[in-house]
Structure formats: C-alpha cells, structure tokens
Write a structure and sequence with these properties.
Keywords: Methyltransferase, Transferase. By secondary structure, the chain is an alpha/beta fold. Helix content is 45%, strand content 24%. The longest helix has 23 residues. Bound molecules: S-adenosylmethionine. S-adenosylmethionine binds next to β2, β4 and α4.
Length: 225
C-alpha cells in the first residue's frame, strides 16, 4: 500500500505507460503501478546500493521482475532509448536535486511525454527549470503526509510562461486554491511573521534578511487577496 503522497504521484501516471521511477528506494511506486495495470513495465533507478537491494527484493516478492528492472546509477543514466520510457517519476527529493537530475539527463528526456515530480522543497527552482527547458506544467497537486505538505508537479513537453507569483505558488495550485494549499501558505505566513518579529527585535541580524522576509510576507498576502 502506498503512502498518501505516493498515491497521488501514482494517480498522475497515465494507463499504458512505461515508467522510470528515479530514486525508487523500495520501488513501491513502480510495483504498485504495474500490479494495478497502469504501467506496462519500467525501470526503478537507484544511486545507492542499499535501496537498490530493497527494490530488487520487493520486485521479486511481488512477482513483477519480468516487468520492472531495478538498476544502479545516477539519475536518468539508468535509462536509454531502448527502454521506451514515456513517464518519469522523481519523488521524495529536494527540488534542486530533481533539477540537476533532469538537467544532466536532458538527452534522455526526448521521447518522454510526462514528468511526475514531487520535490520536498525547492518547487520554485524546479518550475523555473521546467519552463526554461520546453516543458509546460499541466497539473499540480498538494498532499499532506506526516505533518508536511508536499507539492506534486506534472510537466509535459511544450511552452509556458510563468509569472513570479506562479513560480512561487504553482500556476495550477493557485487556481485550485484548495484547503491543503491554503493551509500550507497560512502556515508559511505565520512562520515568516515570527522571523520578521525576531529580526526586528535584533536589528543587527541583517536588514537584507528583514527586507526579504517582508517581501515574502507581502507576496503571500497578495496571493490570498
Ligand atoms: N521515491 C521514493 C519516495 O518518494 O518515497 C523514495 C524517496 S527517498 C527519500 C530518495 C531516494 O532517492 C533515496 O533512496 C536515494 O538513494 C535516491 N537518490 C538520491 N539521489 C539520487 C540520484 N542522483 N539518482 C538516483 N537516485 C537517487
């Protein structure tokens, strides 16, 4: 059974796809997709040997070893043209790491029709990379798990321009404006207001930081307006 976060990721993979799950850890995502008949097969990539062994064990235990190949390697280096991957999932890492993996694997993204990305942080930088590399954001979700609110970004080949506000909050999440999204930004607003108070009572800690914090607060308030 998948965690709420991975369940949402899995729900964004189209039926009939060949999937690469990069940073698969136990390969729960790929196994779930194949067992439910969503993915016809794929690759589970891992850079670390421990998680790779876990993936292999789980794949065998679930009798999907003819459909999912667990491979050791950095990022997209584990896939090649012969794999015919349609969808790449990268979940549970920082946005900067996901961005580096995509950037270094640019050549391998050519036949790919969809990216399903779940950055733990660094959503802004990831969106920025996507729109600067001929991807458009076609869907976004936000999900609560273990006291953290995770954003999931779906991107497909295409053109898109995003405003600063859309890069921060997510063009689709902003429109959906659901309860989980509102909770995330209300929580962030409270955190920033505390930071502001602290900085104001210790002015030596930096005018620049205070200026930035005030700007972040203003942006969230404007978004809620
Ligand atoms: N994707 C799973 C999830 O969302 O639950 C596992 C997330 S786990 C926190 C991150 C995994 O990514 C770790 O198993 C780690 O070894 C792997 N990883 C980190 N950097 C990687 C890279 N450059 N290429 C492939 N895997 C990587």
């Amino acid at each position: 059974n998948l965690s709420p976060r991975l369940k949402v990721v899995a729900g964004l993979v189209p039926k009939g796809s060949k999937v690469a799950d990069i940073g698969s850890d136990h390969a729960y995502l790929a196994i779930n997709l194949v067992k439910r008949g969503i993915a016809i097969g794929g690759v589970a990539g891992e850079v670390a040997k421990g998680p790779l062994t876990n993936s292999r064990n789980e794949i065998i235990k679930n009798a999907v070893d003819t459909k999912i190949d667990a491979r050791l390697g950095d990022g997209l280096a584990v896939i090649d043209d012969a794999d015919d991957i349609d969808v790449i999932c990268i979940a549970g890492m920082g946005g900067l790491l996901i961005r580096r993996i995509l950037d270094e694997g640019l050549e391998r993204l050519k036949g790919v029709t969809r990216l399903v990305l779940q950055p733990n942080v660094g959503e802004y930088e990831l969106r920025e990379w996507l729109i600067n590399h001929n991807f458009k954001i076609t869907d976004e979700e936000i999900v609560a798990e273990d006291f953290h609110l995770y954003e999931i970004i779906v991107a497909e080949p295409g053109q898109m321009k995003l405003s600063e506000q859309q890069l921060i909050f997510g063009p689709i999440l902003m429109n959906k404006n659901n309860q989980v999204y509102q909770n995330k930004w209300k929580k962030e607003l409270l955190r920033l207001e505390k930071v502001q108070k602290n900085l104001e009572s210790h002015p030596r800690h930096g005018e620049e930081k205070l200026r930035k914090t005030k700007l972040q607060i203003k942006r969230i308030e404007e978004m809620f307006d």
